Amino acid sequence: MNRLKILIIFILAGVLLAGCVSKQPSEVQPTVQPTGTVQPTKAPETVTLNGAGATFPYPLISKWSSEYNKIKPNIQINYQSVGSGAGIKQITEKTVNFGATDAPLTEQEFSNVSGILQIPETIGAVVVAYNLPGIQNGVKLSGDVVADIFLGKIKKWNDPRITSPNPDIQFPDKDIIVAHRSDGSGTTFVFTDYLTAVSPDWKSKVGKGKSVNWPVGLGGKGNEGVSGLLSQNPYSIGYIELAFAKLQNIPYAYIKNKAGKFIEPTLETTASAAAGAVSTLPAGDMSWSSVSIVDAPGENSYPIGSFTYLLVYKDQTDQTKGKILAEFLWWAVHDGQKYSSELLYVPLPDDVVSLNEKTIRLMNYNGQPLI
Amino acid sequence: MDRPNLSFFRISRRKLSGDFIFEAIVGLFALGILILAFLLFRELFIESGLSRNTFGLRFLATSTWDPVNEVFGALPFIFGTLVSSFLALLIAVPFSLGIAIYLCELAPEKLRTPLSFIIELLAAIPSVIIGLWGIFILAPFIRDYLAPPLSMYLGFLPLFQGPMYGLSMLTGGVILAIMIIPITSSVSREVIMTVPTHQREAALALGSTGWETTRIAVLPYARSGIFGAVILGFGRAIGETMAVTMVIGNSPKISESLFSPSYTMASVIANEFVEATSKLYVSSLIEIGLLLLVISIIINIAARILVWKLLRVEGGGRA
User: Is residue A305 classed as helix, strand or coil in its secondary structure?
Assistant: First the structure.
């Protein structure tokens, strides 16, 4: 009996192994032939690029990965959305081909990795969302009011500083419940970056970071945690990604920009903020630690947004992979941008694309440019 | 099959016999766990060095957690972990004991197996699912139906004061209680089942009622095992991460009120580790992990000692 069992196990294992081995050639052939890129002598080797980093751009990068694989079937792009911190760590240790981060590298991080290039690949916006029974989108708030709400200084919805720019809306005499992210996140970084820019009080008491010491409020994990808090607690206020608010139909505020206008957060108004900041951007191989597009100038600029970045080394150590990486980045900042809008990311303005072109041209192998 | 009887080879044959190899392999597995535990501790200790050197014992006693200015103190997290776990025990132990006693002593034979099966199934629910249920069902329920009467009748206690938003220490404790009930009740059940029937028969023969039998003959006999079950539950409550993170409110402040949000050690690691970039920040989070490990080891050792003492005094059942 036992022998029979062992025999069966061996046979099964053999079948499985054979299945794995025979699968590969049959997978390669049909995908290669129709595109016509195959050299007659040998099938192109599959090259895998590994990336790791921020969770925010994950849907976009994975879309790129599958679209790029359709164009170049022999190239696989794997992206692990492990968080910006882990992404920076992995690119520093050179265990991945590219990293991704929501916040630009700090001075210290930048000095830790020599020869790193920062390539803004898309733009995200953060909205101030709320749950006010009977009130839809469009409560007008200025930055200092948002800061004072999150500092716990403005405690009631019918505070004159909230009601005065909104004469058409009846605000209830209710306590404001503040909701924020509990997990470290690029969203928090962008939001606190904005509050730091507009409120000296916020700057001195809290500051900006991926996690901060919140003076008041409840912490929810992830965008879904904060939106869960909002949906369950009437009279609450919080901040979430624009895409998330749009998809979940969560009402959000219009925010006063530098030009004094109350601006609805949309892809266009965020792009306009980025375009307004272009003249101040450094070259791709310089430190971007002070780059910020919050509270950007421009009539139509939504003030709470940020670039998110891909990180690659200027000096590539593998000629083939380096070339493929450079080509992929080139594609991502050009053709790849057309997938942004459908996924509710903000496409890069032309000026940023041409800045990225210069940055990607810096990539080289032994001094030879890769693109 | 006949074996050639070669006495010269006998010893070496025995050395290489299946028994010896088996012993060596399983021994290696057991040793592996020890080595793993040691390496884990060592790694946590080394990696938390920066934080230990920077903050020293202040880390345990201060309650500021400010990643921006890199000032870290773990007190609110230690407080949150211990209080939420004790709260969970307070709720879960009577329930678990009740379940165990019912299943062993009172339930009709036909019900026992399916009921205990279902209870054990509860333990198999992924904690993120329990957490989601906590956010969308339990938290609003506690906010709307449990908190108002508590603050109305027991509001004079600082425990039940202040506004209640659903996510709170209380909600965290209740979620933890739900998560540890399966393990404490099923272990208690196993323990009570090992109580010999003659114990019960003796009590019944002396004229005890059903309740008296349980109280006099069964529970004291199973006491140490039940205590072990409680500690197992406590261990699970301390380390539980996902579900608690989702309902406890994640606010590192120490408050007397069970209605205010709190934070646990496991939660802060889960929340902040991924995006922690500076060395001191990471090191502080690792020190929290070290503390969590040390606290659970201390609790387990204390529990073992208690169980031994009980056993020596009672000389009773061991389970």
Answer: strand
Counting other chains too, the contacts that A56-61 makes at CB distance below 8 Å and 24 or more residues apart are A56/A102, A56/A124, A56/A185, A56/A186, A56/A187, A56/A241, A56/A308, A57/A100, A57/A102, A57/A121, A57/A122, A57/A124, A57/A308, A57/A345, A59/A343, A60/A121, A60/A122, A60/A339, A60/A340, A60/A343, A60/A345, A61/A100, A61/A121
A212 touches chain B (CB under 8 A): yes
CA–CA gap between residue A101 and residue A90 (Å, rounded): 11
What number of other Cβ atoms are within 10 A of residue B254's Cβ? 15
Q: A351 near A307, Cβ under 8 Å?
A: no
Rg (CA), chain B: 25
Whether B67 sits inside 8 A of A210 (CB atoms) is yes
Q: Where are the domains of chain B?
A: 2-47, 52-313
User: In this predicted structure, what is the pLDDT of residue B10?
Assistant: 53
Min distance A207 CA to chain B CA atoms (Å):
6
Burial class (CB in 10 A: 0-12, 13-18, 19+), B30: exposed
Instruction: Enter the pTM of the model.
Output: 0.80
Structure tokens given for B267: 């939660």
Q: Which residues of B touch A (CB under 8 A)?
A: 64-69, 135-136, 139-140, 163, 165-167, 245-246, 249-252, 261, 263, 267, 270-278
Q: If you count them, how many residues does chain A have?
A: 371
Read off the tokens for A135. Answer: 């009130």
Quick check: B180 and B99 in contact, CB under 8 A? no
Residues B81, B260 contacting (CB under 8 angstroms): no
Residues facing residue B293 across a β-bridge = none
Per-residue pLDDT reduced to its tens digit, B198-242 = 988 999 999 989 889 999 889 888 888 898 889 889 988 998 999
Q: What are phi and psi of A47, to 5 degrees?
A: -110, 130
Chain B contact set for A109 (CB, 8 A): 277
Percentage of chain B modeled with pLDDT above 70: 92
CATH of B52-313, one of 3.30.160.270, 3.40.228.10, 1.10.3720.10, 1.20.1070.10: 1.10.3720.10
